[in-house]
Amino acid sequence: MKFPDRSALGDMLGTGAIVGMGLFALFLLVAPSIIVLIISFDTRAFVSFPPQGFTFDWYLRVFEQRVLVEAMLNSLQVGITVTLLCIIMGVPTALVCVRGQFRGTTALSIFVLVPHMVPGIVLGVAVLFAAAAIGISPSIGLQSISITVFVLAVMVRTLMSRLQRMDPALEEAAANLGASPFQTLRTVTFPLLMPAILAGAVFTFIEGFDNISVAIFTHGFRDRPLPVELLALVQTTNTPLVAAVSGVQIVLAIIALIVVAASIGLEGVNE
């Protein structure tokens, strides 16, 4: 009787263990969101699992609540503003960090990364105190700027990863053919960089729309974003309305990822 080689058996067991751990980790990440979505369709007037019926009434009630609709619009405004600011500041910063020909590019990339490594609560408190010291009140503007500082590293790192994989010979060829630096950026660099810009825009928009750790300290009283409003809702009600609001946020995030996958492909960011 022939027994399998020990090394082959060890490889099979190791591969099986890695795949099993990966599937278990994926389950832990996805299961809570799935449970929330299931609860949001329950017919009962309190949160319970498993549900006893199916209805869209709670989603209809979400859009009947003026406070929730205004919170969604506030979060949408913050998300768009954060995305635009990250693109405006992230593209030149990434170009300087990767294509820069001077000392300090490494220090600059680290400097951009530091705010993202700091806990959002700490950054939110710091921004709140700094703004109060110069007479700036919490508002959508302050919230947008503070979240931009927090997530700018996501845009910059995404663009830097793309730039580092781009062949500099393409830009050099354009320059050798007589293109000015601006023409090279417009006709060669930006088109090749566009997949990373779009991917970074989607991720920064989601973070700007859903952020609570920074927003809870920097939002205005009359312009609370949806995550903060959801936190207040959890404290006052135990109905599936809370799950329905969470379901709206989950669906928006999924739609954003689908748009990226359909337009450039998730693998297109690192090509």
TrEMBL record:
Q: Boundaries of each ABC transmembrane type-1 domain copy?
A: 72-263
> Could you tell me the superkingdom of the organism this chain comes from?
Bacteria
Primary location recorded for the protein, binned into one broad class: membrane
Q: Which GO terms describe its cellular component?
A: plasma membrane
Keyword Transmembrane helix found:
yes
Write out the GO biological process terms: transmembrane transport
The reply on keyword Transport is yes
Q: Where are the transmembrane segments?
A: 12-41, 76-98, 110-134, 140-160, 192-221, 241-266
Q: InterPro entries given for it?
A: MetI-like (IPR000515), MetI-like_sf (IPR035906)
Tell me where it resides: Cell inner membrane; Cell membrane
Report any Pfam family annotated for this entry.
Answer: BPD_transp_1
Keyword annotations: Cell inner membrane, Cell membrane, Membrane, Transmembrane, Transmembrane helix, Transport
Look up and give the membrane topology term. Answer: Multi-pass membrane protein
Q: Which SUPFAM superfamilies match?
A: MetI-like
Q: Which family does it belong to?
A: Belongs to the binding-protein-dependent transport system permease family.
Please identify the protein, giving its name as recorded.
ABC transporter permease
Species per Swiss-Prot/TrEMBL record: Roseinatronobacter bogoriensis subsp. barguzinensis
